[in-house]
Amino acid sequence: MSSSARTAASKCKLPPLSTNPERPTSSNSHSSTKLSSFFTNQASSNTAIPTSSNPKTSPKNPFPRAPIQTPLEKFLQANCKSGNITLSEALDYFDHMIHMRPPPPMSSFNRLLGGLVKSKHYSHVFSFCNKLTASGLLPNLITLNILVNCLCNMNRVCDGFVVMGSMIRKGYRPTTVTFTSLVKGLCMENRIDEANKLFEKMIKFRCQPSVICYGTLINGLCRTGKTDVALKLHEEMNSGNGVRFRPNTVTFTSLIQGLCVEDRIDEATSLFEKMKKLRCHPSVITYGTLINGFCRTGKTDVALSLHEEMANENGGYGVDCKPNSVTYGIIIDRFCKDGMIDKATELFLEMKNRGIFPDVVVYSILIHGLYYNEKWEAGKALLHEMIDSGIQPDLVTFNVLIGALCRRGNVKDSRDLLKLMIRRGMNPNIFTYNTLMDGLCLVGNLDEARELFHSISTRGCEPGAISYSVLINGYCKYRKIQEAINLYEEMIFKGVKPTVITYNALLTGIFQMGKVQDAQKLFHEMHTQNVLPDSATYLILLDGLCKHDCKPEAMDIFHSLENSNFRFSVEIFNCLMDGFCKSGKLEIAWDLFHKMSSKGLLPNVITYSIMIHGLCMEGQLEKANGLLLEMEGKGCLPNVITYNTLMRGFCLNDDSTKVVELLHKMSERNLSPDDSTISIVVDLLSKDERIRKCLDLLPTFPATSQLRMP
DNA sequence: TTAGGGTTAG
């Protein structure tokens, strides 16, 4: 037994645990990931396989259950649900428990496993389950549910299904919890259609989705951009018809009516109860039919109480499947992240109007959304509203506020907030430190960021890949590439796996310094570190290669991407086209421009501006002007850069009439000229006195008084 | 005793 477990045991006055010679010395011995052993290694006891289909009676534990709660059980009850148990304590207790005779009840094992789930030690839960069966102990339905949940959280949803299959074979009936875990697992793997199908299937399986299950699916839909579908589902819950694909109110009402007509009032009543159990909302017609039936059969008092029930909200059923603060929070969060802050606020008001009180999570979601969408005053007001409602900010709220201040470059107040949370007895977490470090980097205070980075481990947290990436990004932004590379090497040395974001930051920095070979070397290193490049990586790489005269290399990569299933972005085309235009290879750029549509991409204002620039450089002004008309015709509005580009072209060609014409067009579009426009006009004036007359149109632009020539 | 929501880096 480890000293930590001993301490924990003494704390809760547990009897000393006997030393188990077989106890593994390291956590690695628990890390078996084979599913098969869990199900096949049951030969030690035939009684381990339940024979009855009744889950309440089927699994017979070969050992008698302790009649009263032991100190061990009390300890587990007190510490597991809160997650107040360390991994090493859990390992020790588990090893002790499986050797106890008689063994503790399965609920104690489940509590212990639950504690590990709380601290996200999924693989350990998995190996504990394997050891349980290997010891001849029988996991019960809840143990299996915990296992399904762990597998799903480990992105092993397929194995989750295998466990469900085994569950059924053992005579257990999968529960809403089982299905919810699997729905979540599918959502985590972005298999939202399958999650939706499973949701429908569980209803067919007569397993009612709970509000948690709805919440899980709604979250999956929101995460995959299907907010509309999520909203519809949410509304479906709210209307009381929160369960799909089953007999509905109309079918039930018809049957009740039929039974009432035949004076089979008892059967009608039980059908009515059944529909409520199935969360099928009886309508006023259903009630009316049944009330009529009771009245007809002389049961007026029952009819009256039914009438009373109608008056009560929901009649007391279906309530647990109504939207709650969690389901609202999920959708509000999606709207915030999609920049639809008005929609988010609207939904927040709706939930309050429906009597659903927002909790600290919903407040934090919306406060974050408001700050993130630069609605500072509204964010502040909401924070005050939350506190006035008696809800205190929690750790995440503080992190949101620190992040908001950092984004505004207000590091001083962020630091004060950190001090405040510590004064309040709150332990800042790695999010807090990473956020603050990023804020410090943003304002160029790299030394303080580094200092904070080094102090993280003394503050009870460990810097992870994000901490390193934040600092690496800070160094790269301020062109301190060597420091960034040193940090990168340090993270590898310390076993912290760099992410694609780490590499993207480094590649950007290295290309900025013009070190093309180093960047290429790093790009290849990504493979050795098993980090897959994403579309941002390819954009950085292709842009860097193009800007540093390595277009053939860029095109090689482009072609290899074409041969894979890579999803091209407009930005990738833009960077290549820009590169070729600027090096006078207009035809290649033109080919790329035409290739875009075959990749399902539409040119944007930047694409057109690049091509217009390329054409102007080649003196193909008419064609450039044609492209301007084309983009306007296709609803892609030119911006000031597009006009400047084309005007510069005409200016160089001494075509002042065209320039003036374009200035008029700009004015019509309410586009303000920028410094570049001004310099074009000045150039033009210096060339041709007659152009002075164009000054007449200048007052139509805002903020152009400075342009008036003496 | 088991299942859902919020905060950090390009």
Explain this structure to me?
With 710 residues, the protein is mainly alpha-helical. It has helices at residues 3-11, 36-40, 71-79, 87-98, 106-118, 122-134, 141-153, 157-169, 176-188, 192-204, 211-223, 227-238, 249-261, 265-277, 284-296, 300-311, 325-337, 341-353, 360-372, 376-388, 395-407, 411-423, 430-442, 446-455, 465-477, 481-493, 500-512, 516-528, 535-547, 551-562, 570-582, 586-595, 605-617, 621-633, 640-652, 656-668, 675-687. The protein folds into 4 domains: 1-41 and 67-139, no CATH class; 249-317, Alpha Horseshoe (Serine Threonine Protein Phosphatase 5, Tetratricopeptide repeat), CATH 1.25.40.10; 341-563, Alpha Horseshoe (Serine Threonine Protein Phosphatase 5, Tetratricopeptide repeat); 605-707. It is globular and about 100 Å long. Helix 13 runs parallel beside helix 15 (284-296), helix 23 (430-442) runs parallel beside helix 25 and helix 31 (570-582) runs parallel beside helix 33 (605-617). 39% of the residues are buried. Residues 1-66, 313-319 and 702-710 have low confidence and may be disordered. The termini are far apart. It is built from 37 helices and no strands. The protein is 64% helix and 0% strand. The structure holds one DNA strand of 10 nucleotides. Residues 1-67 are annotated as: Disordered.
A few lines on this structure:
Helices cover 64% and strands 0% of the residues. It has 710 residues and is mostly helical.
